[in-house]
Amino acid sequence: MVKQHVVKKTRSSNKRGKGAPYLFLAPFLIVFSVFMIFPILYALVISFSRWQGGSLTWAGLYQYSSILSDSFFWQSLGNILLILVIQVPIMLLLSVMFASMLNSSRLRFRSFFQLGFFLPILIDTTAYSLTFSFIFAQHGLLNQTLSLLGIGAIPWLTSMFWSKIAVMIAMTWHWTGYNVVILLGGLQSVPPEIYEAARVDGAGPIRQWFSMTIPMLRPLLVLEFILSTIGTLQLFTEPYILTAGGPDNSSLTPVLYLYQVGFQQFHFGYASALAYVLALIIAIFSFFQLRFTRGGSVA
């Protein structure tokens, strides 16, 4: 009897022990379900519905079919793809160059320069966008400096061409340091003996950079390229504060257009459909990037 009682007690304690992890996870799972899973699923339902008389009415694929003929959405997608093709490669190239310079043993005060590249990451997106809006203003700091150099003022925020350039400059300033920190960590994990052996074999700094540094950083570069692509396709704060999507929708982005449709025009069903189409586009981009780069493998 005593033995059976001990066995039952052991089994009950084991059951309680197995359930303990779920009790600890329960608060997170509840909050995650309420504020993440439920809104995502509800947005999916809304994307197939229309508001009528304060209630949802099933509309099928009407919202999604409307996107095919929405010139504003396709214009915003074209704007963001142009920024993606120009800004992301320039930012990654600068990141590799700066990371290589910061990794050099000949550089003095390396900690100071590393901190300088890291500081922009700590600045809030809204704060630095507001700062750049003052810098790029018609009589802002940048145009005042250009005037002192004898160069005419540039309509950074009122020109269809220069508005995109202004957004790209602001993004590059803020996010280059983020990529530099990641690449610098990868470079510092490379044994210096590899570069010493290459130097003995007659490889100069440029040859080492192209034949050794870039291939060894390829997995990190692929990761940064995918993250930068996702972040660019979700671009909102910079164009919203700098140009409000103008002039003439020249800097309008899909997320900014989604915001205008949902929170200014109150077409939540259509905004939800736009969100899911954008998520699908991001997933397709990420898939093909991984496919063509073979997941960042060096071989």
Structural write-up:
With 299 residues, the chain is mainly α. It folds into 2 domains: 46 residues; 232 residues, MetI-like (MetI-like fold, Orthogonal Bundle), CATH 1.10.3720. It contains 13 helices and 2 strands, in the order H-E-E-H-H-H-H-H-H-H-H-H-H-H-H. The protein has a two-stranded antiparallel sheet with strand order 1-2. The longest helix is centred in the N-terminal third of the chain and has 46 residues. The radius of gyration is 26 Å and the shape is globular. The chain starts with a helix and ends in a 7-residue tail after the last helix.
List the defining traits of the structure above.
mainly alpha, globular, 13 helices
Instruction: Specify the CATH class of the largest domain.
Output: Mainly Alpha
In the CATH hierarchy, the third-tier topology of the largest domain is known as: MetI-like fold
Number of domains: 2
Q: What is the number of strand segments?
A: 2
Taken in chain order, the helices and strands follow as HEEHHHHHHHHHHHH
Strand content: under 5%
- Strand order of the biggest β-sheet: 1-2
Determine the N-to-C terminus distance: 66 Å
The coarse overall form would be: globular
Q: How many individual helices? A: 13
Mean pLDDT: 84
Q: Which percent bin holds the helix content? A: over 70%
